Amino acid sequence: MPARNSVKLYTENGYYHIYNRGVEKRDIFLDEQDYKVFLHFLKRYLTEAPRSPDRISPGWKTDLFDKLNLISYCLMPNHFHLLIKQSTKEAITDFMRALSNSYVRYFNEKYERVGALFQGKFKAVLIESDIYLLHLSRYIHLNPLEVRPADRSDLSRFLDDFSYSSYGEYIGQRKTEWIHPEEILSFFKTSKHGNLKDFLSYQNFVEDYKEDSKEILATLSLD
User: Fold this and answer.
1) 161: Cα within 13 Å, side-chain hemisphere
2) What is the rounded CA–CA span in Å between residue 25 and residue 37?
3) DSSP code for 89
4) Chain mean position to CA 189
5) Which of 7, 16, 12 has the alpha carbon at shortest distance from 82?
6) The whole model's pTM is what?
7) Straight-line distance from the first to the last Cα atom of the chain, in angstroms, rounded to the nearest whole number
8) Domain boundaries defined on the chain
């Protein structure tokens, strides 16, 4: 019996929740460098290759950047979440193959190990409604709460300070060319609340909305 969400039906212009975790639930990011290298590979495959005078820079896969958009992401010690929109049926498969192979080669060489790093093939869920899309982005951006220290009760500051998610791009702290929050933010009046807490802001939807998004994301399972 195939693992849940491992059998994938891909469509053009489809939104997908892509996720995976370490084999045997092991950590796949052991230090800050590991997170930064994974983000480097995301950037590599999501941006157009820079060109030297006579050739494209080595190591770039040049046919991916214009076939998919990364809407949001979060990297956790033993798993990751990506929200992606693809324009062709094959884009996600090619992207995840390149991303996974590059990171596993880096990780195994650094830590002098061999074999699989991830728990089988990545999982993929086709997103078929706006409400699922919005709550998935919220769920992804709240994932860091799993590792919040007990002495960090300041939810907003903790999420703002977390370096390995796209939340900063959503609330205007950063602007990154290969992350595309525009479609999610188009549902909200503003991205970040002010002193009077505009409840039509994306930030308030993430931090103050009372319903647990996992109740809506019934198909989510890191099995």
Assistant:
1) 10
2) 20
3) T
4) 24
5) 16
6) 0.87
7) 13
8) 15-212
Q: Which CATH superfamily is domain 15-212 in?
A: Transposase IS200-like (3.30.70.1290)
Task: Report the pLDDT value the prediction gives residue 116, as an integer from 0 to 100.
Answer: 95
Could you give the CA distance from residue 188 to residue 81 in angstroms, rounded to a whole number?
A: 22
Tokens 């370096």 belong to residue: 163
> Are residues 47 and 178 in contact, defined by beta-carbon separation less than 8 angstroms?
yes
Residue 126 main-chain phi, psi, to 5 deg: -75, 130
Contact 213, 199 (CB under 8 A): no
Task: List residues bridging with 171 in a β-sheet.
Answer: none
CB 28 within 8 A of CB 78: yes
Cα four-point dihedral sign 84, 144, 117, 107:
positive
Spatial distance between the Cα atoms of 30 and 111, rounded to a whole number of angstroms: 10
Over residues 9-66, the pLDDT tens digits come to: 788 999 999 999 999 999 999 999 999 999 999 999 999 766 554 444 555 555 788 8
Query: Side chain identity at 171, as an amino acid letter?
Result: I
Distance (Å, rounded) from C-alpha 63 to C-alpha 97? 13
Band (pLDDT 50/70/90 cuts) for residue 219 is low
Indicate the helix (H) or strand (E) that contains 134: helix 130-142
- Pairwise CA distance, residues 138 & 145, whole Å: 12
Give tens-digit pLDDT for 98-146.
Answer: 999 999 999 999 999 999 999 999 999 999 899 999 999 999 999 999 8
Mean confidence (pLDDT) of the chain? 85
